[in-house]
Amino acid sequence: MFAFRVEDDSLTSIIEGMADSAGNLMDALVRGVSETMTPYVKQHAPVGKRYLLDGTMIMGGELRDSLHFVYGQYGSYLAGARQGIWVIGGTKPHRIAPRGPRSVVSTRKQLPQFPHLSFFWPKVGTAVFPKAVNHPGTEPNDFRWEAFQQAMDEMAIQDVTNRIMTQWVSGGGI
């Protein structure tokens, strides 16, 4: 450990306080930036939609509503609903087939009880019951970068960083 002494005792105590609180400073910066970024990330997260078999559209938001930062020893990371990985990274074309004797949606007694998918297809305007479908895949949508750019443009990250650093320097620590 590096140690030094200055003639002015008030300055020495301030510098020692700052050195002792460096870990607290980093924690405050990580938490402050993460808390500042949360509303930006939620604002930019895509909100999907799904359809009931009768064609009623239901707006999504599960991914958006689940987004939060998890804090650890070495910083924080964004976490949320599992479909986030497919939204951010996109998907390649793939086949979708039922896994069991019935599809996930066709559990009502009046629907087919054999292994078929069931969903409302807006393009044809009716419910369909295919044995399988070839999904065309999705383009990646890394909404995190748009959120970060907006936060930077609005100086939100700089503001929280400046506030914490000023508090640390002027107060001799956090």
Automatic annotation (TrEMBL):
List the taxonomic lineage: Bacteria, Bacillati, Bacillota, Bacilli, Bacillales
**Where on the tree of life does the source sit, at the highest rank?**
Bacteria
Report the protein name in the record: HK97 gp10 family phage protein
Native organism is Alicyclobacillus fastidiosus
